[in-house]
Design brief:
Largest sheet: 5 strands, mixed
Distance between the termini: 24 Å
Strand content: 15-25%
Number of domains: 2
Shape: globular
Radius of gyration: 20 Å
CATH class of the largest domain: Alpha Beta
Helix content: 40-55%
Structural class: alpha/beta
Order of helices and strands: EEEHHEHEHEEEHHHHEHEHH
Number of strands: 10
CATH superfamily of the largest domain: ATPase, nucleotide binding domain
């Protein structure tokens, strides 16, 4: 179904994203036109812990939320009176963090008497591509790779999904962070692994690739993570010098090869012409390069967002909220945080 974007000329959405450690507020016109997209990062606060601490994240969201809303309105040269619609992430994510964004969104919706739409964070990552690529329309295959999620999705239409594969243990981004920690790299680990991979030898160490049973599109990265940890421990016990860049490059290659192979296989099975990359790990240069090469070989078109739209941001949430709204879907004041929300579920 091709949605007529002209049918709602003045839907001005204020969107809020607070599922993890980014406090983000965006203002959009008609879903795909981003007027402002403010992201307040907490990376510095969590670096000393080597990962996100839920309680710290929640407190920082409380400190940031009003300031970020004010900044977004100011940058868009608007006031609350100009806002006609509110969208907010309600899951999955950290429950305390989600509740901060939800409370602010419901307050604005109630005070202004305007519609509210709760949005699935995973769905938001897919829709970041609609903002980046105005011509993009379903159907397509989407590979969603982030710190908490690894999914292969067949997007039939706006809001209609078939989950073809998902991780059975660690998400790809989670594996990146854990291996980075073992290598003594800074948090967040994904960008550090990617940086080192550009100077390391990706064929230096043969790490396993978990393909699972024949025909499965699921992923498993815990075995690969364990193989890297075992290699590091073994080399240390032998007194050998560890080439960190080679370990990073070899590990990354094992991850991106599996991701790419299964994505291309899905696209061929569903006979689609387009593959869409989404999520925080979509910023990984190695994954972008390999997937682009394989898509060209297979006659497929690859789409992915700019780096800013790969990270958690409110613009992608506003885009989903807009499409739900024009389809007649609305949330009420009973909307609550659902930390384990699955793609396609609605509460």
């Amino acid at each position: 179904m091709i949605i007529n974007h002209q049918q709602n000329q003045q839907v001005i959405t204020l969107a809020i994203e607070s599922s993890c450690d980014e406090t983000s507020v965006s203002i959009l016109k008609n879903g795909r036109n981003v007027l402002t997209n403010i992201i307040a990062s907490q990376i510095e606060q969590h670096q000393k812990f080597g990962g996100v601490v839920p309680e710290v994240a929640s407190r920082k969201h409380i400190e940031n939320i009003n300031q970020v809303i004010d900044q977004a309105l100011k940058e868009a040269e608007m006031s609350f009176e100009d806002i006609t619609h509110v969208a907010v992430t309600y899951g999955p994510g950290l429950v305390g963090a989600l509740l901060v964004g939800l409370s602010a969104a419901k307050a604005i919706s109630f005070a202004r008497g305007i519609p509210l739409n709760g949005v699935n964070h995973i769905e938001g990552h897919i829709y970041a591509n609609f903002i980046e690529h105005k011509e993009l329309e379903p159907p397509f295959i989407s590979l969603i790779v982030s710190g908490g999620h690894t999914h292969l999705i067949y997007m039939k239409d706006y809001g209609e999904y078939e989950v073809l594969g998902r991780t059975r243990d660690d998400a790809a981004g989670e594996a990146f962070d854990k291996v980075a920690r073992a290598l003594g790299l800074n948090y967040p680990g994904g960008p550090e692994i990617d940086r080192l991979s550009n100077i390391g030898n990706k064929q230096a160490i043969s790490f396993p690739k978990a393909s699972l049973e024949q025909g499965s599109y699921d992923f498993s990265f815990s075995g690969l993570k364990s193989a890297v940890l075992n290699y590091l421990n073994s080399e240390k016990m032998k007194g050998n010098t560890i080439n960190t860049a080679d370990v990073a490059a070899s590990f990354q290659q094992s991850v991106i090869e599996v991701l790419t192979e299964k994505t291309i296989a899905c696209a061929k099975e569903k006979e689609v012409k387009t593959v869409v990359l989404a999520g925080g790990v979509a910023a990984n240069s190695g994954l972008r390069k390999l997937l682009e090469e394989k898509c060209i070989e297979s006659g497929l078109e690859l789409k992915y967002p700019s780096i800013k739209l790969c990270t958690d941001n409110a613009a992608m949430i506003g885009c989903v909220g807009y499409y739900d709204y024009i389809k007649g879907l609305k949330s009420d004041m009973h909307l609550n945080a659902v930390p384990n929300l699955k793609l396609g579920q609605r509460y």
